[in-house]
Write a structure and sequence with these properties.
Among the domains are: about 60-235, Cyclin-like (Cyclin A, domain 1, Orthogonal Bundle); about 240-265. The protein has ten helices and two strands. The chain has helices at about 1-5, 15-35, 65-80, 115-130, 135-150, 160-175, 180-185, 195-205, 215-230, 245-270; strands at about 55, 240. The two termini are about 45 Å apart. Belongs to the cyclin family. Cyclin Y subfamily.
Length: about 290
């Protein structure tokens, strides 16, 4: 139970690994800017005023796809950059199981990929397979769960196959229309179905077949990714709140309010069924 509570991919109160790994770089960057008197430059962030409200189109239930992929790949970048060691397994090693027919350089394990490289790899998979932003967040949950359960590190020699395995599993668990392993072979032309199947089997075994992602854990990862974006000046696209958008938000709010009212009524009916032992007492709210 203690191990479970310290694992961020299982417990909502445990801190995400990627956010803690990014903090060293964030602090160093702020310290360097302060010492060198670096100006933040022209302010590009938009702020709401009395006449205009700026909002982005990303919410915890409907995240923005492009922004989410940028944040998830940045989290992977910090995992690789600030890893503790180079612990790995053969099933994820790109030299042993190459994704392309191109020869893997002998020093492939020495060079950390930059954020753009990771982003292009993940974006290509998500675009070709038409995966959702929610799937990207679950991918990161599975990735951190794998690193914790299997006690390995994500490093230059294994990052592509670990990320691919996490995406493969997340797309099957999360998305209604799952992408088959053979479909990924159409995207990554040189990989075989047998290799994909073997990697998926190992990934599941290393996760101890724990593919459950509680809503509270999902929400924690979403908001920690937004914090990561703020720390690294990755801004979400802000647009003025239009009349049409405000009406749409209001309609969604009403639907949610009606839904929770119905749930509350159902809960009250269940309480009265126990021989009317539970009474409901209502009091007027006092606004000061």
């Amino acid at each position: 139970d203690l191990a479970l509570e310290s694992n961020p991919s299982d417990h909502p109160r445990a801190s995400t690994i990627f956010l803690s790994k990014s903090q060293t770089d964030v602090r160093e960057k702020r310290k360097s800017n302060h010492i060198n008197h670096v100006s933040p430059g022209q302010l590009t962030k938009k702020y709401s005023s009395c006449s205009t409200i700026f909002i982005d189109d990303s919410t915890v239930s409907q995240p923005n796809l492009r922004s989410t992929i940028k944040c998830v790949t940045l989290a992977i970048f910090y995992h690789i950059k600030n890893r503790d060691s180079d612990r790995s397994l053969d099933i994820f090693d790109e030299k042993t199981h190459p994704l392309t027919r191109e020869e893997v350089p002998d020093d492939y394990y020495k060079h950390d990929p930059d954020h753009k490289h990771i982003y292009r790899f993940v974006r290509t998979l998500f675009s070709a397979a038409q995966l959702t932003a929610e799937c990207a967040i679950v991918t990161l949950v599975y990735l951190e769960r794998l690193l914790t359960y299997a006690e390995i590190d994500i490093c230059p020699s294994n990052w592509k196959r670990i990320v691919l395995g996490a995406i493969l599993l997340a797309s099957k668990v999360w998305d209604d229309q799952a992408v088959w392993n053979v479909d990924y072979c159409q995207i990554l032309k040189d990989i075989t179905v047998e290799d994909m199947n073997e990697m998926e089997r190992h990934f599941l075994e290393l996760l101890q077949f724990n593919i459950n992602v509680p809503a509270s854990v999902y929400a924690k990862y979403y908001f920690d990714l937004r914090s990561l974006a703020d720390d690294n000046n990755l801004s979400f696209l802000l647009e003025p709140l239009s009349k049409e958008r405000a009406q749409k938000l209001e309609a969604i709010s009403r639907l949610c309010e009606d839904k929770y009212k119905d749930l509350s009524k159902a809960a009250m009916r269940r309480s009265f069924s126990a021989d009317n032992l539970v009474g409901i007492r209502r009091s007027n709210a006092i606004l000061s």
